[in-house]
Amino acid sequence: MQLELYKNKTWMHEINPSFKLLAMVLLFISVLFIHNINVMLNLTTLLLLVYLLMTGQTYKLKLLLLIPFVFLFFTSAISMVLFGKGNTTWLEFGLINVSEESFYRGIHLGLRSLAFAFCGLIFALTTQPVYLFYSLMQQWKLPPKYAYSFMAGIRLLPLILEEFLTLRKALIVRGVEQRGGLLNKVYFYSIPLLSQSIRRAHRIAVAMEAKRFSNQKNRTYYYELGYSRMDLWFILLILLMIALSLYLGISLPYVPVTDVRFSG
């Protein structure tokens, strides 16, 4: 699955992973301080275009990954629309109080959730975990024992899932799946999975020690990662998206609301 996921590479795959992580974190923080719904709509739309055009995956996979986040948009928006505060009431029924302020605030909250989702998807679909941790060790001087621990943990997740599915089929064949309550099911699954994980972790530790893995700072790496002009293009792309969103949101607003925060 990992090989298929990163088979179609774009220029965003060539960006230094740790630099991309830092840029995405700063973009996350920037989104938190955007309270203009017009600016947020523009930025979310631009992030969607980057996600659809520059991640290198098939459109079927991209649209499939969007389904849970579209659901998140509606749930986060509706909760704020129906139960938010506001002065200009549109609909009031029991605990439900839909106002103009709560409506725009709910849409803004949903757009912010989508912006976070697009940032995460762009990073996940264009960054290989192995390269990320190698970059963290080389550029950010992350201790190798932590980096290799995370890499080993990520590698083990598909194996644990495969063991879980195999164990589930075995329990169904033996008729154990239909007996007992939740606690019994937790017992039947947790003990074998935990014991297998401990054995596998021990074998990995022994293998790494046999291959002379250590925590020394002066070490060699199989992958040598550095900075390139792609990093510059990436930060320019982010700055351009933010600037264009601000300019269009202020100069050509879609709705006459510049701040969705409720002032009472």
SSE order and pairing:
Elements: H1 2-5, H2 17-32, H3 37-54, H4 59-83, E1 89-93, E2 96-99, H5 100-125, H6 129-139, H7 144-174, H8 182-210, H9 229-251
Antiparallel strand pairs: 1-2
Helix pairs in contact: 2-5, 2-9, 3-5, 3-9, 4-5, 6-7, 7-8
Structural features:
single chain, 69% helix, 3% strand, transmembrane helix, 9 helices, 264 residues, ABC/ECF_trnsptr_transmembrane, flat, mainly alpha, two-stranded antiparallel sheet, 2 domains, transmembrane
Commentary on this structure:
The protein has two domains: 2-128 and 227-251, no CATH class; 142-210, no CATH class. The chain is flat, with a radius of gyration of 24 Å. The N and C termini lie far apart (51 Å). It has 264 residues and is mainly alpha-helical. It has a two-stranded antiparallel sheet with strand order 1-2. The protein has helices at 2-5, 17-32, 37-54, 59-83, 100-125, 129-139, 144-174, 182-210, 229-251; strands at 89-93, 96-99.
What does the overall shape look like? flat
User: Mean pLDDT, nearest integer?
Assistant: 86
> Helices and strands, in N-to-C order?
HHHHEEHHHHH
Stretches with pLDDT under 50, minimum 5 residues: none
Structural class: mainly alpha
Tell me about the largest β-sheet. 2 strands, antiparallel
Helix content: 55-70%
Oligomer: single chain
Distance between the termini: 51 Å
Strand % is under 5%
Number of domains: 2
Strand order of the largest sheet: 1-2
User: Roughly how many Å is the radius of gyration?
Assistant: 24 Å
> Got a strand count?
2
Specify the number of helices.
9
